[in-house]
Amino acid sequence: MVKVYYAPYARSLRVLWTLEELGDAYDGVRVQFPPKLNDPAYLDIHPLGQIPTFVDGEVKLHESMAICEWLAERQLGNDLIVEAGRAGRTDYLQWLWFGEATLMPPLGALVRQTFGPEPGRSDILRDEALAAFQERVGLLEQVLVGKAWLAADRFTLADISVGYSLNLGTLFKLHEQYPPNVAAYFGRLRERPAFQRAAALA
User: Fold this and answer.
1) Per-residue pLDDT tens digits for 176-201
2) In angstroms, rounded to a whole number, what is the distance separating the alpha carbons of residues 35 and 50?
3) CA quadruple 105, 202, 39, 49: dihedral positive or negative?
4) What domains appear along the chain, each with residue ranges and CATH number?
5) Cα(63)–Cα(71) distance, rounded to whole angstroms?
6) pTM above 0.85, yes or no
7) Which ranges in 82-122 belong to alpha helices (H)?
8) What gap in Å lies between CA 103 and CA 167, rounded to an integer?
């Protein structure tokens, strides 16, 4: 059975969510965050102390969306991936990486400016991060006009990627300010039973 090391609000939610969507059995191991301070034994598993870690026999992966892609690719016949040459492939790739490369950086800055050591905090940097996140959510609002999902007219890993980032926004109550299309989209994501099962853990 595969093993997933996870923590609340960490990117491991993407992995747990994908496993739940696929119906795969797994062994979830909760790590005390941040592990460098609270769970030093985890550093033997991932020297950088980042979460998640995924282990399946000799396979060990740490990047959340790499894990999600690997899981979806090994199970034939699921709809979570838009394969090369299929309609919606470019949208799929765009939003698969938008969730991490574009939505997450300002959220990471908000985490640091809110929960990091006080000497490194700055109201100016926090406001800049908040404005950057809202700008990116504004782009998502435009893209979701007339669309239920981000790619190929169906739920895919792209939605899991973006959905995790939107969910992290709840830590700062940012979801209360999501514009209408994004708010409706986020509601659809949170209604999925697989999301609810994963979120109950992470």
Assistant:
1) 999 999 999 999 999 999 999 999 99
2) 8
3) negative
4) 2-80 (3.40.30.10), 89-192 (1.20.1050.10)
5) 12
6) yes
7) 89-101, 104-115
8) 11
